[in-house]
Amino acid sequence: MKETTEPVRVVLAGAHGHGATYLDRLRRLRGRAELVGVCDVRPVPPEALAGLGEPDQGDDVGALVARTRAEIAVLATPTPAHAPMAVAALEAGAHVLVEKPPAPSMAAFERMARAAERTGRGCQIGFQSLGSEAIAAVRRLVAGGAIGRVTGVGAAGSWPRPAAYFTRSPWAGRRRMGGDDVMDGALTNPFAHAVVTALAVAGAEGRGSVAGVETDLYHANPIEADDTSAVRIRLADGTPVVVAVTLCAPARDEPYVVVHGERGRVRLVYTTDEVTVERPGSPPEVTRHGRADLLENLVAHVRGGEALLVPPARTAAFMEVMEAVRLAPDPAPIGDEHQEVTPGGRVLRGVSALVEEAAERLALFTELDAPWAVPRVALAAAGRPVATYVTAPRLPATHAPRPHLHPVRTLGGVTVTETLPEDHPHHLGAGVAIPDVGGRNFWGGRTYVRDRGPAWLDDHGRQRHAGFTGRTPAGFTETLVWEGPDGLPVIREKRVVRVRDAPPGWALELTFTLANATGTPLPIRSSATKGRPGAAYGGFFWRAPGDSRDRRVFTAGAEGEEAVHGSQAPWLALSAVSAGDEPWTLVFVQDADPWFVRIADYPGIGAALAWDTPLVLGRVLTRAVTVVVADGRLDRAEAARLAAAAAPGRTAPASAR
């Protein structure tokens, strides 16, 4: 490479907010770097560019790079814009520095990495902590046996954030926006450094380093994304890595990573590059380390061929975690009773201590019995997370709280369940719900009263998760107790949930056995049995997303809501297009009960236990259903093929007796 002393020509995309810090960094690099262009949707005032000349301004980074002959494009834009802008800048001839997180999805990250490889240009990811010499120091200590065998890695971060932080831009606090991934959560944006640094000290940076991720995501603020969360990352070598963070702390604590060993621990405060070795019987050993500026490193790469400190390959494991968070259930809300609203933001009582305990014990918030934590179980098919089972939702009594599946996703990541929809807030994903069990409402919402209509009654029960008797990544066996409004047992249930491959999708098998706990015959009623025509809901029920469109429902011999509602076809298919223009199809298989179908008012499919007459539960009743979940709009022939393939895996239904 021919060396030159000419300043590297730089275009900055995103000069407001955090992007303004790059203006100061470019001033410090005067003589080595020259700002020749600014790409922003808002003009940058002259005073912000003082000392940086009169750079060209525009809103198309590729065109700006080409027009200015820029050699570097710095991208300090919202995360969803990173990949498309990086590809445009790379193809226009510039090397790029992309702010963290590099992309909101693995697919977008890979597009960017492939473009860098294809063009032969450098791509630096802006994880500043990875430029620290402290990481190498920690790894040398661990490799040298300073703390014995490593038992795990923890990371903790507690910061306060005012309400204005979550309204700083239209994408702030969002997981998705206009059908696009955003992922502006605590784990993936402000504390993304905690995740990537924990992986780096563990020596787990490349693709394939992560074997699995458990997520525990919450929000106290009125946002979509997480502001208080934990993840447990299982590395390919079996090492557990737990990262716990919050933006709802009463005060700022410097975030840190701690490597636990059998004979001590090493703690790295990654914001100050301070490393402390702690061993029983010895005073702490503290060292401080330097760090390289990633923009300076990229300039040196362009001019002198210096190796990049943070190429995409060093952040691939981070993106595996990011992808798991993207596909995880939406963060659960934390009730007002657990928080205080202060001028500095929402504060969760005791959260800083919980975050530290999680990093110390390598535990999730649910395992630490945080009062606001919601236990959930993740299920995987074809090597991908496809469903989450919520065991103990914290909901009003009027919703008839019950364990349920949500979100359920296709292999392509399209969500095909909905919970707490505005039209029927008591609809909870996929599960089992009955509106009248001996006069008790286990469905939620109003109770239908003969000759009166729907009415609010104090008759709501709940399904209480009593425990698992078997559990694997592919399913579980659960015991539940259906308790009436007086807290007394009405039904004891055994529920078996399994997932398995069913190309081109996957199959969910759910079997439930209801045992009468009252000692007397127990009538099960639907609203239809009490005089409301067609309202025969009750039993297995699947609520699909209300924002889906172009809904189609059909069986082997009929099509449309009116034709299939009440039919007893062995299978039924529901297909639609998501709000993000992604088609999907669900194929339901069972032959014990009539189908309850809604697609006009809302999309919901059920198997009706009591169609037009009450069902009397003597001792026990068993039902089973299989649901094949697939991307794309399947036709009748393909749905029939999937239904036939799914049928042998079902448990044969038994009658009430």
UniProtKB/TrEMBL annotation:
Q: Where is the Gfo/Idh/MocA-like oxidoreductase N-terminal domain?
A: 8-127
Keywords attached to this entry: Oxidoreductase
Protein name (Swiss-Prot/TrEMBL): Dehydrogenase
Source domain of life is Bacteria
Q: Name one GO molecular function term.
A: oxidoreductase activity
Q: Where is the GFO/IDH/MocA-like oxidoreductase domain?
A: 136-266
Carries keyword Disulfide bond?
A: no
Keyword Oxidoreductase included in the entry's annotation: yes
Q: Which Pfam families match?
A: DUF6807, GFO_IDH_MocA, GFO_IDH_MocA_C3
Provide the leader sequence positions. Answer: none
Q: Which species is the source of this protein? A: Bailinhaonella thermotolerans
Cite the InterPro entries for this sequence: DUF6807, Gfo/Idh/MocA-like_OxRdtase_N, Gfo/Idh/MocA_oxidrdct_glycsds, GFO_IDH_MocA-like_dom, NAD(P)-bd_dom_sf
